[in-house]
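Forum > Structural Biology > Help requests

Title: Can anyone predict the 3D structure of Aminotransferase?

Hi all, first post here. I have the sequence for Aminotransferase but no way to get a structure on my laptop. I'd be grateful if someone could post the structure tokens.
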Amino acid sequence: MKEVMNVSLFRNDLNTQLDKIEISEIRQFDDATSSIPDILKLTLGEPDFNIPEHVQLAAKQAIDDNFSHYTNNAGIPELRQAAANFQNQKYGLHYQVDNVITTVGASEAIAAALATVLNSGDGVLVPAPIYSAYSPLIALNHGVEVRINTRSNGFVLTPTMVEAAIKDHPEIQFKAVVLNYPNNPTGVTYHKDELAALADVFKKYNLWVISDEIYSELTYGATHTSIASLIPEQTVLISGLSKSHAMTGWRLGFIFADQALVDQIKKIHQYWVTAATSIIQKAAVEALTNGADDGLEMAKQYIKRRDYVYHEMTNMGFEIARPDGAFYIFAKIPAQFNQDSMAFCRDLAQKSHLALIPGHAFGIEGEGYVRLSYAANMDKLREAMTRLQAYINNADNEQQLH
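Reply #1:
Sure, ran it for you. Structure tokens for Aminotransferase below:
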């Protein structure tokens, strides 16, 4: 047998922007805890529901129909129309086919949007803590990120915070702001009056709004309002089917924007991925038409889970900004634990076999917190709360002994 040589071909003349980014701490921590025996992981934003059966059948039918060839770069017109109709009917928007690009998940949509609007040195406002994907994508596109710490206001961005950040950095030409609501990791969302106030300040400074509303169907209480309903000409609306239809692995997302901007984003999308998978596009038509309310059925279960976990963790001494959407609890580590979030989560995983995500994974603004995903069934959540309570009790006992 011919011996295979393990020769490193690494070179040091790669894209220097790569020095500014790392593999997501979320994935790193999830991978690191996977080898712990009997580990109970509430780490990833992964719905535990199966994809609705009628959506699965639509995918199987597309295979049987040999729908396996290239589609339009922006997606099949039938799907783009269905996506536009969904947004229009649900959230009072006014999109047409030419306002939509079908992407390979919301992640590609975010990346393509940022790559389109940013020139080297452009500033991007990012309310934090926030999902870890945005910062690396801004860096890779040579943007300048300015983070706004929202902890003092229950993780809600205000116009005052926006204006203060801009005035604190007169040397930066700000081009865009990133919104993500309902928010990952906090589960906090924005109400219409809050969005109206933000829209006014975004208009004042002529900012593109990259609005990631992937969790819009998982909003509890008040109806979700899209900022695209207030400033459509400045908004790049990001959505998809990963959360609303539990289609995370099928990688199907959308960009909605003014047609002139869509035409520019399409250039990048075309050369990056050509088009989303043909079979999944057919299934997505079914999801957005006959399955338009599938996410609402899942939301009913998420509300029960949220209420249970919120109650249990609050009683254990965690401080939590009550989440009104998504499926996350973002909890402040009780004061008696003199550890950073990574040390706390490592110790919890090793001693109680329960994996949560350290708040630092969402930026330094998340330090001192942990994120728990309640996209798991009630049996797992009850066991998780039992393990967490035991960990806290053991820590309390150890402190008393010392």
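Residues 20-45+294-395 form a domain with the Aspartate Aminotransferase, domain 1 fold (CATH 3.90.1150.10). The mean pLDDT is 95.
Shout if anything looks off.
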